[in-house]
Amino acid sequence: MSESDRSTLYELMGGAETVRRLVEAFYPKVQQNPLLSPLFPSDIGPVIDKQFMFLSQFFGGPTLYSDTHGHPMMRGRHMAFPITVERADAWLSCMSEAMVEVGLPADLRDFLLERLKGSAYHFINTSEGE
């Protein structure tokens, strides 16, 4: 196994700097999305910080989220919000746009989005008609 084969996604992305840039590119897109913006507070700063910590950990970096907030339990933390397939797709679309904006290579971007799809669709708790 080569050295690059042992790298985490976090390292392949560019570490903390890239994860921070990604999250900061992502949330303005969320705030402008009519499906997603109602789910988020107007003071998005704390959400950005939590997402930075979570994605750092999710992609194999330091366990910032767990160290600060305990076990992620992300499905449970999202149950209070009506998450539909359409909203999960919108979230993934905003993330994809942010990945392009920060310059992640297409192959890495595709891999990261595939990994995030599992979580995004796992959070669905509301059908479109509700």
UniProtKB/TrEMBL annotation:
Alphabetic keyword roster: Heme, Iron, Metal-binding, Transport
InterPro entries in the cross-refs: GlbO/GLB3-like, Globin-like_sf, Globin/Proto, Hemoglobin_trunc
Source organism, top-level taxon: Bacteria
Pfam families, per the entry: Bac_globin
PANTHER family given in the database record: TWO-ON-TWO HEMOGLOBIN-3
Similarity annotation: Belongs to the truncated hemoglobin family. Group II subfamily.
Protein name: Globin
Species: Paenibacillus germinis
